[in-house]
Structure formats: C-alpha cells, structure tokens
C-alpha cells in the first residue's frame, strides 16, 4: 500500500519518526479504532486519531451536544448544540481528515460495535458502561485504552487480556462521582484524551512501551504524575480464565 503525495505531505512528521516511519503509518492507515463516548476525553482523542491517519474510526454516543459541553469537548462548536454528538463529531473529523472513514453510532455501545474494530478507547463518565466495554473487549480479544477525569486529576490505563479493567474496578462503586456532580477543569480533558490517543498510536505502531497492565495517575494541580501496576484478579469473572 503506497501513499499519495497528499498523504506524504500530511503525515510528514510521522514519516520521519524512527519509531513510526512509513511502515508505522501504513499500520495506522489500515487500523480501526472505536471511540466510546464523544465527550471530554473522546473529543480530543478522536481528533488526534483522525489527524494521525487512522483508517477507520467509530464514534459511539447516545447524547446530544449541550452548551455545558463546550467547556471541554473541543470537537464541537456552538452551532452543534442540540445535534447528536456522534453525527456532529463525525462531521468534524471528516473535515479534519477526509481520508479517514468515520462511522457514527447514535445510541449506547453494544458488543457488536466492539467486535468490528481493532482497538477500543473508552472515555465515558459511567462505571457501568466502562465495565460493559471492558467485558466485551475481553470477550472479543480487543485491547482497551481507558481514561477517566474528575476535578483536577485524571488517569489512563491500557488493558489487553489480563489484567482487565474489571480487575481494577470489580463493580460499580456505590459512591461513584461524575464530572457533572464534582466538576472538572476543561483543559484536563485535553491532556488525558490526548494521552489516550497517544497510547492507541503506540499500540498500533508497536512504538515504545504502552501502559499495558499499568495505570498512569495525573494530578494537574500539583503538576505530578505517577504510574502504578495493576494486578490481575484470578477470580475476575471476565479475564480470570484468560492467559
């Protein structure tokens, strides 16, 4: 598979990177990524994935754009208020990179969505959905990049086989907080969402060391980050029998 002159120009900064180069850009071109949740994390992640030349991107979101979203969901404009997020996001991504195939899904994520893509990014603000997505990724053998934010802190992890996300969060916490309830600084969504896209690009191109089995925790108020290892739960109902 060769690049057009326009693609050579568009991806020039990737092509000169030793860790990506022509071979890595080809991998990006034929890859498919599903972004679950086109909100604060999914918005910047999807923009950078499209800009990177991911061949096919799916966007799953059941919501419509609201004025309060514009503080952090940078994929939307004021004119998008009231539109389905999946449709508005798809239109923006297509305008950013017409060479990428964008598939919008209006509604909640389903197992059949996940089975049709190489890699899944989950940026939802809902533990129940995160567990559904993680279980489906384990069942379909798909790597998962998961991110979360709240107030001034965020986290990102990569799960491929075991440990899975359910090893980290076994069930929905009874005191689970949401950004709507506790607030979040808008720029933090850009930081963590961009890191999710970066981990996806590393996984696809086999560049560097992904956060597999690790959780990166970022405290933006202190400007500090730390990485912790996630242990596999041998009794995990999702990945306990996986190798």
Give a short overview:
With 243 residues, this protein is α/β, with parallel strands linked by helices.
Give an overview of the whole structure:
- Helix 4 packs parallel to helix 5 and helix 4 crosses helix 10.
- A hairpin with a 4-residue loop joins strand 7 and strand 8.
- The protein has a single domain, classed as 3-Layer(aba) Sandwich (Rossmann fold), CATH 3.40.50.
- It is of the alpha/beta class and about 240 residues long.
- The mean pLDDT is about 95.
- Helices cover about 35% and strands about 20% of the residues.
- The protein is built from ten helices and eight strands.
- An eight-stranded mixed sheet has the order 3-2-1-4-5-6-7-8, with helices on both faces.
- It starts with a helix and ends in a 14-residue tail after the last strand.
Overall average residue pLDDT: 95
CATH class: Alpha Beta
Taking the alpha carbons of the first and last residues, their distance comes to 34 Å
| Main sheet overview | 8 strands, mixed
Could you tell me the CATH topology label: Rossmann fold
Unreliable residue stretches = none
The tally of structural domains comes to 1
The tally of helices reads: 10
The ordered H/E elements are HHHEHEHEHEHEEHHHEE
Arrangement of strands in the largest sheet? 3-2-1-4-5-6-7-8
> Which range does the strand content fall in?
15-25%
Q: What shape does the CA trace take?
A: globular
Query: What is the radius of gyration computed over CA atoms, rounded to a whole number of angstroms?
Result: 17 Å
CATH architecture group name: 3-Layer(aba) Sandwich
Number of strands: 8
The CATH superfamily title: NAD(P)-binding Rossmann-like Domain
Helix percent reads: 25-40%
Structural classification:
alpha/beta
């Amino acid at each position: 598979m060769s690049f057009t002159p326009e693609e050579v120009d568009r991806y020039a900064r990737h092509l000169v990177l030793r860790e990506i180069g022509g071979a890595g850009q080809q991998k990006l071109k034929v890859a498919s990524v599903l972004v679950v949740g086109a909100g604060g994390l999914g918005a910047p992640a999807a923009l950078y994935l499209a800009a990177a030349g991911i061949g096919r991107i799916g966007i799953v979101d059941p919501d419509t754009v609201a004025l309060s979203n514009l503080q952090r969901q940078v994929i939307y404009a004021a004119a998008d208020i009231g539109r389905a997020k999946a449709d508005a996001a798809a239109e923006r991504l297509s305008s950013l990179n017409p060479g990428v195939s964008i598939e919008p899904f209006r509604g909640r994520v389903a197992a059949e969505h996940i089975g049709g893509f190489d890699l899944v990014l989950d940026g939802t603000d809902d533990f129940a959905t995160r567990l559904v997505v993680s279980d489906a990724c384990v069942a379909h053998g798909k790597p998962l990049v998961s991110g979360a934010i709240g107030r001034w802190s965020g986290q990102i992890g990569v799960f491929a086989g075991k440990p899975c996300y359910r090893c980290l969060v076994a069930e929905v916490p009874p005191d689970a907080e949401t950004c709507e309830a506790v607030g979040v600084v808008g720029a933090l969504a850009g930081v963590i969402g961009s890191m999710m896209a970066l981990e996806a690009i590393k996984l696809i191109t086999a560049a560097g060391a992904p956060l597999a089995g690790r959780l990166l925790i970022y405290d933006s108020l202190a400007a500090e980050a730390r990485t912790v290892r996630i242990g596999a739960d041998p009794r995990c109902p999702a990945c306990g029998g996986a190798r």
